[in-house]
Amino acid sequence: MDTAPLLGNRPALIQDHPVFLRASHSPWSLIPQSVLSFIRGSILAYLTVAAILILNYELTNPPLNANPSDPGDSDPNDPGPDPNDPSFSTIAQTVTNWRLFFEFPIISFGLVLWYFVVTFSWTFTHLYYPDADDVDGRVEYAIIRLMSLPRDLGNARYQFYFTLFYFVTVAYSFMNSAIYWFVTRPHDLVHVVLGLFSQGCPDQVKLWDATAVTLAGPFSDIFGEGWLRAFVLINLYAVTPGIMVTEVLFLNSIRRPNGIGGYLFALLVFAALYIGWAFIGHAATDVWPFFFLDTAQVGSTEAVVAYSIGFVLLAPIAFIFMQGFVGVRESLIRPYVIVQDALGA
Fold this sequence. Notes:
This protein has helices at residues 19-23, 33-60, 90-97, 104-128, 138-147, 156-198, 220-223, 227-251, 261-285, 295-298, 301-344; strands at 206-207, 213-214. The protein is mostly helical. A hairpin with a 5-residue loop joins strand 1 and strand 2 (213-214).
């Protein structure tokens, strides 16, 4: 049994279908429920494998300057702790690994993974087990009930919570990608170049003129240190936001909210809460999730405040960027909706 896509676009004070159903239906007739379930399941399987590899890499490769016994060290040329060094104790490594609970890329990836766990469960059970009460067996019933859509689909509070979770997941994913490609990576490249100069490695750095510096390759920092590092970086900062763009355009029919003020405010709050969470993480692990939160690296407390404000303001920008994709999707399906309405009249 395939369920028809939800294509209604008539104005209303609330969405014409509960957001839970819209998250479980593609607006495209070429993506019926069976195909949507397969796509979501495939993405979930991929994200699960990627999560395992990412955790393996992060747990076995401590970040630069992540030595808990050396608090406040922000020297970009310091290679950090070597896990194979006997002096790097198990306790120190455990403390360092706690940093994962505070790293924005890991949190962002975790939200995307959990979103697909939820939406795959809803899509699958809505197609194959529309009524959990018809399932025989106590264990089977408990599993299907856990995977099924909420009983009270019309509950406005639950709809708001899920919609906010969806918006935060997409916004965090876009923010994570933008920060890496436009802030963190350029900063790291500059410090690599300065480190090579300070170590006297002219063969690795070529000056084409007085201001330009060229490394061995444009993406040697990503692909030049083994396949696992490249896989981790690409998945954290390119594949994940790409998946969420695909989600917005093709895999759900969640519409633009009629009132965005509450969501914008909530996104600002969640972004600000992360900044606080990052400072808690530094207090617990002596590791900064972002270089721009470290006064020693950016030069002053005022610079840290400016970067933090920019981070918080990036959340609504990412939200607006996301709504642009929603607008593109609705514009593309509108002619089909008009034809369907005319045929049904």
